[in-house]
Amino acid sequence: MQSRRILFILFLIYFVFAILLNSVGTVILQVINNYGVTKSAASVLEGFKDLPIAVVSFLVASFLPRIGYKKAMLIGLAIVTLACLAMPLVPAFATAKLLFLCVGVSFALIKVSVYSTLGLVATSRRHHAGIMNTLEGFFMLGVLCAYWVFSWFIDSADPRSHSWLNVYWLLAALCAVTFVLLLATRFDERLAALPAESTPAQDFAAMLKLFFKPLVCIFVITAFLYVLIEQSVGTWLPTFNNEILKLPAAMSVQVTSIFAACLAVGRLSAGIVLRRLHWYPVMNACLVGMGAVVLLALPLTHDAVANPDVTWTSAPVAAFLFPLIGLFMAPIYPGINSVMLSSLPQHQHSAMTGLLVIFSALGGTTGSLVTGYIFGAFSGHFAFYLTLVPIAVVLVMLYFFRRAVEGEDGLGGTGPVIIGSSH
To answer: What pLDDT score was predicted for residue 133?
Structure first.
């Protein structure tokens, strides 16, 4: 009964952070309209979110068990509660930067703690895979809710309206309730304790040594590029819908939920597919599918005409076709994550998660900044066409990743599929 309560709280925490993490695209659209900042300037919000994730993960992931997983999660929830309250109280672009800085710092603590706590609750590898699937299912549910919840507070008739900031009262309340539930729950973290004779410096050195394994090095580069692609699309799709497809602001955010829904379906399906098929041809097929969607959908986005009375039935076909890239994109990160974790001894999983979080954050920041710059300097079409470059590079990296895996331990990636997320 206690383990079920712990799992429920972990799922709720991930749900809350899914909303906060994946609201960056919506917030970029709103700060451009509200505060008159340029696209290039607005794109730094992704960096304020992702760079703290990378820095904090780098500093604390290796010895977070010494702090305590429950205490780390409580700290993270307290920080984001206060940051959410600041948004409507002090409306400004600087406050939005502060919000995502706090979200980034907190998520670094949350992700490593949640992943490690799952290992304490799970009774077997199959059980672990099952609850990981459910956890990431809750994450995608939060992503879907983010688009719709924010769109309810957006006033499309007045782009400069600050009504959208009222959503943060709701989010602050949700964070506070989660904090209280976590505080009242007992955690047994004795199994996660690090060896008494090791020092924090030794723990940190062990994580750095892990990075220099050829298999791990190829993996983190591949993960970096994947997240770069996902964040490039996910962060800028609301703005693309609004400026290129000429959809109203609220509908631009709502239509982006199709992309999140496709990611959810793809991730849930990956658990079934990758248990029956070898991961390598599946990943290659997904990358080819992503490229095909880009080449088919983007030509349909030209010459869109603004229509204030547009509805879901009269929206351009491209508004529904391009988000389908999420179906092909979704299985890639879970697949390589599963292969990587299955190729390492269990005691290294925590450090591996830390490295994964770091490079995922760096990939997200790079993707958003580059896409934002190209979107503003050239066009949204050119920015999204350029995703074909990292897609092609990931295709090449997967070949070397497979060779490294099979050379490392001969597993070929047949371990349990863990459905992960780039955020």
So the answer is: 60
Rounded Cα gap, residues 26 and 392, in angstroms: 28
What is the model's pTM? 0.72
**From the CB of residue 396, how many other CB atoms can be counted at a distance below 10 Å?**
11
Buried b (16+ CB within 10 A) or exposed e, 141-163: bbbbbbbebbbebbebeeeebee
pLDDT digits (tens, 9 = 90+) for 11-70: 999 999 999 998 988 898 888 888 888 888 888 887 898 788 888 888 887 777 778 888
Q: Retrieve residue 277's tokens.
A: 């098929």
Confidence label for 201 from pLDDT (cuts 50, 70 and 90): confident
3-class DSSP state of 193? coil
- How much is the pLDDT for 395? 95
CA distance 209 to 195: 18
Half-sphere exposure of 356 (CA within 13 A, CB side): 21
Q: Is the four-CA dihedral 399, 404, 407, 410 of positive or negative sign?
A: negative
Tokens of 250: 């609220």
What single string gives the DSSP state of each residue in 18-78? HHHHTTHHHHHHHHHHHH---HHHHTHHHHHHHHHHHHHHHHHGGGHHHH-HHHHHHHHHH
Instruction: Determine which helix (DSSP H) or strand (DSSP E) holds 256, and give its type and residue range.
Output: helix 249-276
Instruction: Say how far residue 171 (Cα) sits from the centre of its chain.
Output: 18
* Rounded alpha-carbon distances, angstroms, from residue 153 to 24, 97, 176, 235: 15, 20, 21, 19
Q: What whole-number distance in Å separates Cα of residue 7 and Cα of residue 14?
A: 11
For the chain, what is the mean pLDDT?
83
- Pair of tokens at residue 267: 């991730």
DSSP SS3 for 401? helix
Q: How far is Cα 239 from Cα 209, in angstroms, rounded to an integer? A: 41
Instruction: With beta carbons less than 8 A apart as the criterion, state whether 142 and 16 touch.
Output: yes
